[in-house]
Amino acid sequence: MKRIYFAFGIVATALIFSYCSTHKKVAEVTPVAAVKTTFQSDILSVVTTSCTPCHVPSAGGKKKPYDNFSNVKADIDDIIHRISLNPTDRGFMPMRGTEKLPDSVIAKFVKWKADGMLEN
Ligand code: HEC
Questions:
Q1: Best of 39, 51, 113 to mutate for ligand 1, by most ligand atoms within 8 A of CB?
Q2: Is the dihedral of CA 59, 62, 63, 68 positive or negative?
Q3: Which of 40, 53, 65, 82 could be bridged to 93 by S-S, CB 3.0 to 4.6 A?
Q4: 117 and 69 in contact (C-beta within 8 Å)?
Q5: How remote is the CA of residue 53 from the centroid of ligand 1, in Å?
Q6: How does pLDDT run across 52-104, given as a tens digit for each residue?
């Protein structure tokens, strides 16, 4: 009888250890680090492509400069509001033409704000 208990003990221990090792493998998978949006790498290029020349003084723009970190940071709510409007709405930006920015570009401004409006 003792031998049977002993055998059970070994089997149970083996099962517990094999469970632990498979469990560990699952826990070792590391999540992909979330990349933060920054003014220099994500926002500036949009401004110099889509808000030029009006908001880019070096291109001859006379409107509020948005190739400028502090101005974009200060006006982020108004910017998100205006680029989210429909082209026929009053205050819609970018003004030129009637094309609305792609959703993925609008999302960059939204994410930049959510990420804490980093410069670099
Ligand atoms: C063709 C010129 C033109 C382009 C391109 C343009 N804007 Fe403007 N923007 C204007 C003018 C003119 C005004 C002032 C009139 C008004 O407030 O609607 C203005 C005003 C604004 C304001 C209000 C600023 C303030 O002084 O209070 C915001 C915010 C803005 N634009 C965002 C943008 C963004 C973001 C883009 C690019 C995605 C853009 N604009 C592209 C001409 C332009």
A1: 51
A2: positive
A3: 82
A4: no
A5: 10
A6: 999 999 999 999 999 999 999 999 999 999 999 999 999 999 986 679 999 99
